Amino acid sequence: MTQDRFALFGVDFTSAPSRRKPITVAHGWLEGATVRLDRLAPLPDWPAFEALLSHPGPWLGAFDFPFGLPREGVEALSWPLDWRGLVHHCGTLGKPAFRASLDADRVARPAGARYPHRATDRPARSHSPFKLVNPPVGLMFLEGAPRLLAAGVSIPGLCNGDARRIALEAYPGLLARAIERASYKSDERRKQTPERESARKRILAALLAGSHPLALRLECESATCELLVADASGDSLDAALALIQAAWAWQRRERNFGLPEAIDPVEGWILGVT
Questions:
Q1: In a 10 Å sphere around its CB, with 0-12 CB exposed, 13-18 middle and 19+ buried, how is residue 88 labelled?
Q2: Distance (Å, whole) CA 182 – CA 5
Q3: What is the mean pLDDT of each run of 10 residues along the chain (274 residues)?
């Protein structure tokens, strides 16, 4: 594989994949300032996701789920203060005990400050990984991070693993909001409106033109472009946005993938957040 064809993934994640609501992966590569989206692949279950993680490198994937937890909350719960230890501990707890721990932390906090945030969450305007509903970001961490650890991938700033398989935390909404302020997706059919479809069209147009803060131009077949707009859940478009973020990181591979030099080993960092 040539350097220009280094495999890139953009992954729209869910904590409960199914055929109706799969994990969606945008596969592609970077050529100059153009990101070629080769195909969109649905992963309907955990074995399919684990197979993606174990796929031989070289590849770089941008994954839309939190890799870490807020240090403030982790310290309050007396959980391990290193990434490997923290992820192993949470995985060993299992979902019921993990939920109970986060619930207990929440009710112990004052009204208006129920959820601790990571340093990267505030500027990204992302949800606290201690949230369990609307959206269940904590469960996304619980399902995603232990699988990253088990797969032995390399996560800059958090975990040294296979240097040919690189995983980075993405947040497609960060790039989408820089292009379009209006809501562009919903899993609820009654909210899948023409206005949201129009917003997806505007986001896609900006990606195709490269007229967005990451300044990379998306290229894909017309049928794929139609799918990015037609998928009212936004999962396909979010995977494409994450692919753009993966390509941006690959451009900066000699500069820590565009990440800060120092990353909290409990919290991690979101691509593109300054």
A1: middle
A2: 34
A3: 73 97 98 97 98 97 98 97 97 97 96 95 96 96 98 97 97 96 94 96 98 97 97 97 98 96 96 92
Q: Where along the chain do its domains lie?
A: 3-67+167-253, 71-144
- Cβ atoms of 5 and 29 closer than 8 Å: yes
Look up residue 128 and give its DSSP letter. P
Place of tokens 């004052």: 110
Q: Are 169 and 269 contacting, i.e. CB atoms less than 8 angstroms apart?
A: yes
Measured between alpha carbons, how far is 245 from 171 in angstroms, rounded to an integer? 8
pTM: 0.96
First and final C-alpha spacing in the chain: 32
- Beta strand pairing status for 59-63 and 153-154? unpaired
Beta strand extents in 121-245 (DSSP E only) = 153-154, 162-169, 217-219
Cα–Cα distance between 167 and 29 in angstroms, integer? 15
Supply the pLDDT for residue 1. Answer: 36
Local structure of 183: helix, strand or coil? coil
